Amino acid sequence: MSNQTEKLKLFKWDMLDQVDLNSNFDIEKTLNENWDKIDNNAKEIEKQVNGKIDKVEGKELSTNDFTSNYKEKLENLENYDDTEIKQSIEEVTIKNSEQDNSISKMQEDLENLKNIINTISVVSQKGEDITLNNTVKDVQFRKFAIYGNVKRDGEANLENSVKIKTVGSNVNLFNILKYPYRNYNEASEQITDGTNFRIIATTSKNSNNAAGFKIMDLTEYAGKTLTIKAKVKSSTSTNKGFLVLRQNNTDYTGTKSNEKYDETQNTTDGVIMLNYKVSNIINDSNRYLFAWFYATRGSECNTNDYVDYTLKIVEGTEVGEHSQYDQGSSKAIIENSDKTQKQEYIIPVQQEMLTDDCFDWINEEEVHNWSKLVLNGTENDSNFSVENSGEYTVINCLNILENGKRVDEDKILCDKLVSKYGDTSNTEHIRNASSNYPNNVVIYMQSSRLEESTVAAFKKYLSTNNITIYYKTATEKRIAFTDEQKVIANKIQKATSYEDTTHIYSTDEVSTIFDVTAMADIQKVLNITKEEE
What we know:
The structure is a single chain. With 533 residues, this protein is an alpha+beta fold. Among the domains are: 1-16 and 27-80, no CATH class; 182-315, Sandwich (Jelly Rolls); 370-479. Helices cover 19% and strands 32% of the residues. The chain has eight helices and 28 strands. The protein has helices spanning 18-21, 27-52, 69-75, 83-90, 103-119, 455-464, 483-496, 516-531, and strands at 3-4, 11-12, 128-132, 139-143, 149-152, 155-161, 182-185, 187-191, 196-201, 208-217, 225-234, 243-248, 269-277, 288-297, 306-315, 331-335, 342-346, 358-360, 365-375, 384-389, 392-397, 412-414, 418-419, 429-434, 437-446, 467-480, 503-505, 512-515. The strands form nine sheets. A five-stranded antiparallel sheet has the order 8-9-15-11-13, with no helix packed on it. Strand 16 and strand 17 (342-346) form a beta hairpin. The longest helix is centred in the first third of the chain and has 26 residues, at 27-52. The two termini are 14 Å apart.
């Protein structure tokens, strides 16, 4: 120690003194030495008083024994009531590493940790192991990012960008893992998660290799329409993805009550979508919805041929193949630690958001790269030309889009038609006309859907069968946050900047490497030391 008290020569630690800052400070040893000094000084005072004070009549000093109240206080100095100060010290808990008990070193390490935390950038959804060196204890902890589209400096950054999760009731009802029921017909399954799985043919030359699952309880959906959308990808060009829905009892009996399927959905690479009308009355015989997923349907295949499925179910009619969440509901999740804090922030949206749409947290804006168009039969006749091609009718939608993006790939999404680009085959679909006409769309439709192949007949069809289209725009659209959105955005910013964070834990799920309470305890020790001056 570089400093001592003037009278009793007690050690004291100076926070502003460089020598003290660089030295090891053992608080227990220092306190014991200071108590010894106080005791020794008391004895020395007693010795000097006894040796120097003579008898003085009338002053209560009749003898050299010096038995007055003043003398007794000096004699009992070693029994001085130190309860309060000892209690303050005993209540202090110093959380430090086993290797180093230096308070000054701990302060330096904690300050370094604070600086490191303030400079760590947002990482990807899966998290990133970050080693913090030169801290109280060299540890690793996992920093989690926002589960949401993060946009910085006005540009989308893939490293810092992930899709916002779907939330809200009745948005995605499908979970293949919910029930243990499995039924196999020459097929097996590999499940990635609740919505992604693979159906594998276990025998060759079988035109119906499939696996069946119980997928949902229909008790709350009597009389309602469910939309089932499956994105399929086959391992070969011969085996087909196919979906059959059946309403039945708890243990599937093989009957076909309320079966729903459509032979035109057979596909090797595309989207299958079914609108399923649930029975108006639900009882034990039809309470559950079962689904059969095929490794092939109506064609031969080889052993181990497979079809990959990505599936979702919503109540009502869904629009937009890649729609992430409905208008009015989105979610960003902040996880500071997998053991401590897990907070969910619900931020409303003003317009439906699709893939590549995001939030610009800095400028407080929704950023939209898609636009929505609903064909309902009120369009001008000049927007359409209709041509009969036998089984199919070709509808050219002219200048129907606004600010369409010039692209050479599929940038059209539709609620009723499969989206394709450059495909002129006779199957029902919708596609961009060409990169030279970004505002034009071509629709291939079965002729049987129209009374005749005319513009009037097509508009009449649209009046009762609206077609919803989402398309990529040439320039992005920005919408300023509402006051409600700003409040949530501010909370998210605070969470990711570690403002108000009181603890950070290492990946051993136990050790605290940053603890506000411990810092407060250390400050109490320092304050007591300073008050001694």
